[in-house]
Every structure is written in structure tokens, then in C-alpha cells.
Amino acid sequence: MSALDVLLGEALQAGPAVLVRVEAVQGSGPREVGAWMAVTASDLIATIGGGHLEFEATAHARSLLKGQVLPLTRRFPLGPSLGQCCGGVVDLSFEPLPHQPTAAQCADLRQHLSPPEASLLPVGLFGGGHVGRAIVELLSRLPSRVQWFDSRDEVFPADLPAHIRAEHSEPVQAAVQDLAPGSRVLIMSFSHAEDLAVLAACLLRRRERGDLPLIGLIGSKSKWASFSARLRERGFSEAELSGVICPIGLPGVVGKQPEVVALAAVAQLFSTWSPAA
């Protein structure tokens, strides 16, 4: 569940909150414009970067919750007076949020806080097993837009955030045509036959459209040796095969637990991503 889902589904039902949002940054700052947190009487949801900036912003927001009349915008120089050495200046806004908002107010807040599409990493994930679920758990908290496919329709969790769309596809490789342009693809189905079919479909799409910048296949070097031999027989060139990452994950991250593999794979995805400003 995303921070926004928590805010809309739980926090505002329990009591009022103050939305703190980064409106401008000059120089170096801990978070980008648009970053936000919600402050309730007892909790914080999301973050504007931590440190003394967040400490001061939280105190200001809680004073507003207590009914004090204070400015709804503040400028924070990130220097010695604030106990931080970023060196920049951050402008924050403070917006009181209603207790138990209406459906229309929730929709407005969701639209206000949802990041722009161009800032979201597009991911196509094939496979709903242990590693797939661990990857989705990480991506549920990160700026991404995920298409998640499996040929088994009973494998997906019931409660997924709005930016993760789970779809049953049989045959699963048919979903490759539905991937968003620019998707980073990770292939990890329950079946080597399905993995090979999805990989071949991805390579064909890359050949035709050139719009899948990363294709990763879970597995060992021996699995890749077998797959690459079979793909050569299907007419794929060495140059095309060299564009497949197998094993997946940032080099140097060791461990075979699903969570460790997921961490290395997601870090690798984001290492290829430069979101639009």
C-alpha cells in the first residue's frame, strides 16, 4: 500500500492532518519539488527528506493542527541555523486536510499528489512467484508504473496500489505487445518454457520497435547458455542476444533469498532510469 493510500484510507479517517509539500528548491535539498508528507497528531506519512528540516516542518504542522494561526508557507535555508549542511533553500507549503473527507475531496487529493507519468519508471514484470512478489513489494513504494503478468490468475495479491496492474495472460507472451513503450522488462515465470517464449517475444518487439531498453531474465549462466543456443536457432543475432541481462541484478549484491534478488533487480532497473523533470 502506498503512502497516499495510507493517507486516504486510514489517517484521514482517524483525524485531521496537515499536508506538507516541497514547492521550490534552490541549490541542494533533500527532496525534489512535489515531495510531500502528511502530519497527524501522532504520525507521519511519507517524507520530505528527514533531518532537522522535517523536524521543524512537523512542529509547524502540529501547531496548525492545534489551532494556532501560523503562515501556510515557510522558507528554510539548509545551513548551520537549521543544523543541516545541504546548502540550499527549500520552500514548503502547509495545507490542512479534512477529517473524513468526501469521495470528491479524496479524488482531488489523489490527483494533486499523484506524480506525473513522465516521472514514473515503467516496468513489465512476468511472473508472480516469490521473487516477483518481492519485486512488487519494493516497487509499491517507489515511483513506478508496473504491468505484472502471469498465466496463472490465482497468484496475484488482492490488495495492490493503483500504480501496479496485475493481469492474467494466457499465453503469457501475448502480453508483450501490451507493454508500455520504454518498459524495463523482468522475466521470471514458474516455467522455463514460458520464460523462453516471453523472452523471444520481447526480442522481436525490440527488433521491430526498439522500445524495450532493458530485458532481464532470472537464472544462472547455464540457463542463459541453453536459452541463447535455442534463440540462435530461431534466428536471433549475437547483437540481439547481447542485449539480454542474465542473471539479473546489480553486480556485487550476493544472496539468493527472494528479497535480496528483488533488491538487486530493482536497483538495476532504477540505475537505467532518468525521470523527466
Description:
The protein is α/β, with parallel strands linked by helices and 277 residues long. Strand 9 (184-187), helix 5 and strand 10 (214-217) form a beta-alpha-beta unit. It is elongated, with a radius of gyration of 22 Å. The strands form two sheets. It has a six-stranded parallel beta sheet, sandwiched between helices. The protein has a five-stranded antiparallel beta sheet with strand order 3-2-1-5-4. Helix 4 (130-139) packs across helix 8. Helix content is 35%, strand content 21%. The chain has two domains: 3-113, no CATH class; 117-271, 3-Layer(aba) Sandwich (Rossmann fold). The mean pLDDT is 92. It has helices at residues 3-14, 51-65, 103-113, 130-139, 192-209, 221-233, 238-241, 258-271, and strands at residues 17-26, 36-39, 44-46, 73-77, 89-97, 121-126, 144-150, 164-168, 184-187, 214-217, 244-245. The two termini are 25 Å apart. The protein contains eight helices and eleven strands.
The sequence of SSEs as H and E is HEEEHEEHEHEEEHEHHEH
Main sheet overview: 6 strands, parallel
Instruction: Assign the structural class, choosing from mainly alpha, mainly beta, alpha/beta, alpha+beta, or little secondary structure.
Output: alpha/beta
Task: Tell me the β content.
Answer: 15-25%
Report the end-to-end length measured between terminal Cα atoms. Answer: 25 Å
